[in-house]
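User: Structure tokens for both sequences below?

Assistant:
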Amino acid sequence: MTAAGDVLNQVVPVLVRLARRPGGLLLTAAALGVGVLALLGAVYTLAGDGGSWFPLVLAGVLAVPVLVLAVRRERLQARTQGLALRPTVVGTRDVVVAGAAPNPVQEELEAINGALVESSIRTARFLPRVEAAQRAAVRAAGGTVNAPYLKDDLRVTLVALVGTVAAVPVSAVASVVTAVLLLVG
């Protein structure tokens, strides 16, 4: 593994641990808002007139990014759980045979150059810079074996995060409107 991979494996677990509580609060708020909207939507649909299904459908649409982010968050937590915050260096009794030993500086430069090349290739149509940055990070880390937290597509996770953040106010406003319609109607 290169030094860039070591840095990623030290920084990412810290960031995941720092974001654990805010991420949980965001998911709880979004799930609560969507759940209340679904409940009010079900009651409004049963009381029903034309268009009474809209709050229930909106709750279903808002639930998708919340569920995707919850699953992605759990995977990330599980994949970074095994990474140590401070790696320990253990001495070995390996015998080194003289010959063509790999140069660690050359390996590091090749990994960084490979990452730069990967970051410059933007073939994806949807969030190409995010996809290129993820490929570059995978290349710098030496593959997903060394950085298992990079297996999932970050573009999906980012879109799910934006959808979850949007679900909180949208579900709150829709719940208030649905409650008013239930009281008036």
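Moving on to the next sequence.
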Amino acid sequence: MDISLYLAQQLAEVENTNNNLADRASILYNLIAVLSNEGLKRDLYLYVKKFIILYLDSIEDKTYGYDTLDKTKITSLLVLLTVDEQLGLLKYLRRNLRKRHFDDLWDQFAKTEFRLKIQGVQGSTYWYFNPWCLLKVLYYRALNSISYMIILLLVILVIQIIILLPNPGTIWPSIFSLEYMPISDNFLLNHTCNVFLKLFEVDSDFKIKPIGALGVLLLGFGTAFKLLIITKFIFDSLLKKIKIYE
């Protein structure tokens, strides 16, 4: 098969406005599959992008009962592309669904987008040794899972417990002066409970006073980081609920 001739013929059929929208979308869908099987992926991104428009237009053109979106039509083409290209096309799809007032249809693709975001982070070399990458993966999973949200909070709690642990100054100088609220006779348990209350901003007698510039910087950075994570989590969760997308 002369692939160049086949490509030209099929693209001519796709551009032929005498063909109905569903047929044009179907021709392009099959063409993308052939090109992928032949290893010709140079322009696949553009062809999939065009398919999305034709497919959505064809849905609008159909009568009641037939105007439903088949998610697999799009996802089966997305997997032919790189993770970054897939995320780019999902944003493109989201914008076009909004233009057509099909916001409710995005729910079918939301989990795909989050899965790809996680996949993108995990695609980094030795991502599991990078604390920032691990935190991003945990954060993305927490947006879709209460259990992962609890794990994320526990990770933040453990980090704070370790950073705030008093030390005798033999290895490194103390950077915080702590005033505990008495909860338990066990020092470690008392320390953990006090930090736990502080994490959730529960009113208590537990006070953290920084010692020196490093203490001020760490305390300021830690507070800002915690607020950023919580604010972003609430904001992203609200976006999912009320379907406000870029």
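User: Anything stand out in the second?

Assistant: The chain is about 65% helix and 5% strand.
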